[in-house]
């Protein structure tokens, strides 16, 4: 397989370069990609280090590396363009058309996309994150302030999904694990039923659940195929019987899961 090195370079966090660059790279099969994130490239000295790294990658791979660049400073970006690499200037290719569309000239500023320029929004996300942690895995079942409640068997992806929605969207997301006792009753606990409109179910294939649980408790009943299959099938039947929407986490990313849930529940919020 063809090996290529890809650099995500920015004078900020490089999150934008990495996110967009990674999305583009997923469209290509048959490549072994060495991804290198290089944030805070805000001086000529740091640019020179990137130029050296790009040259070394070109020598090692015997192919030119690719650089996804979101450096705001025009002089530093021009300097980076001299790299022995294929450079994709993500800001450069979009800014001029956007300025024309908006009729306004940009005001270059580093780190605005992921900084703390909006303190209110930042604090809102932090509060939502604290809420998710305080209402994780049934720690608290006081869900009056929750905007949504994820339910599903243990290790089906509830916690990371809640934290993602809190950190990125400021959504107060709680989660509750359906245990053997809950599943044996054949109906949702009363404290969940009263919040039925906030509920969303996560499911997963028994095979994948076994893999995940084996890393946590290898060889245990908890991780056995029999136990996993019984829990998944019973939980799905319970949720379907209660009319709770369900999404499978088996082959979906957290980003996809969160986006679908927020859309289904009408909780789409600004991406801060």
Structure, explained:
- This protein is α/β, with parallel strands linked by helices and 272 residues long.
- The chain folds into two domains: 2-102, Rossmann fold; 119-264, Rossmann fold (3-Layer(aba) Sandwich), CATH 3.40.50.
- 47% of the residues lie in helices and 15% in strands.
- It contains eleven helices and eight strands.
- The chain has helices at residues 15-25, 44-61, 74-80, 90-102, 119-134, 158-169, 180-185, 190-193, 206-216, 225-242, 254-264, and strands at 2-9, 31-38, 66-69, 86-89, 148-152, 173-177, 199-203, 246-248.
- The longest helix is centred in the first third of the chain and has 18 residues, at 44-61.
Strand content: 15-25%
Biggest sheet character: 4 strands, parallel
**Strands, total number:** 8
For the largest sheet, list the strands in their spatial order.
2-1-3-4
Q: What is the CA-based Rg, rounded?
A: 23 Å
* Average residue pLDDT: 91
SSE class: alpha/beta
Form type = elongated
Distance between the termini: 38 Å
Q: What is the helix fraction of residues, given as a range?
A: 40-55%
- Secondary-structure element string: EHEHEHEHHEHEHHEHHEH
Top-tier CATH class of the largest domain = Alpha Beta
Distinct helical segment count: 11
- How many structural domains are formed by the residues? 2
Features:
single chain, 272 residues, alpha/beta, Rossmann fold, 2 domains, 4-stranded parallel sheet, 11 helices, 8 strands, 47% helix
């Amino acid at each position: 397989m063809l090996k290529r090195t890809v650099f995500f370079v920015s004078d900020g966090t490089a999150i934008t370069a990495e996110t967009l660059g990674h999305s583009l790279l997923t469209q290509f099969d048959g490549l072994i990609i060495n991804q290198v994130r290089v944030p805070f490239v805000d001086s000529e000295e740091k640019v020179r280090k990137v130029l050296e790294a790009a040259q070394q990658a070109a020598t090692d791979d015997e192919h030119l590396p690719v650089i996804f660049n979101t450096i705001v400073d025009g002089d530093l970006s021009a300097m980076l363009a001299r790299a022995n690499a294929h450079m994709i200037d993500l800001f450069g290719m979009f800014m001029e058309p956007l300025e024309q569309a908006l009729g306004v000239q940009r005001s270059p500023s580093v780190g605005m996309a992921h900084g703390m320029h909006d303190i209110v929004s930042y604090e809102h996300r932090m509060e939502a994150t604290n809420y998710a942690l305080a209402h994780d895995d049934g720690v608290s079942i006081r869900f009056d302030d929750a905007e949504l409640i994820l339910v599903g068997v243990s290790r089906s992806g509830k916690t990371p999904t809640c934290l993602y929605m809190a950190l990125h969207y400021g959504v107060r997301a709680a989660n509750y694990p359906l245990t053997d006792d809950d599943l044996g009753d054949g109906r949702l606990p009363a404290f969940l039923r009263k919040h039925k409109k906030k509920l969303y179910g996560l499911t997963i294939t028994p095979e994948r659940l076994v893999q995940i649980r084996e890393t946590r408790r290898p060889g245990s009943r908890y991780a056995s195929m029999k136990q996993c299959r019984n829990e998944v099938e019973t939980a799905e039947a319970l949720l379907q019987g209660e009319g709770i929407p369900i999404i499978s986490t088996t082959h979906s990313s957290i980003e996809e899961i969160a986006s679908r849930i927020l859309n289904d529940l009408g909780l789409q919020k600004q991406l801060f």
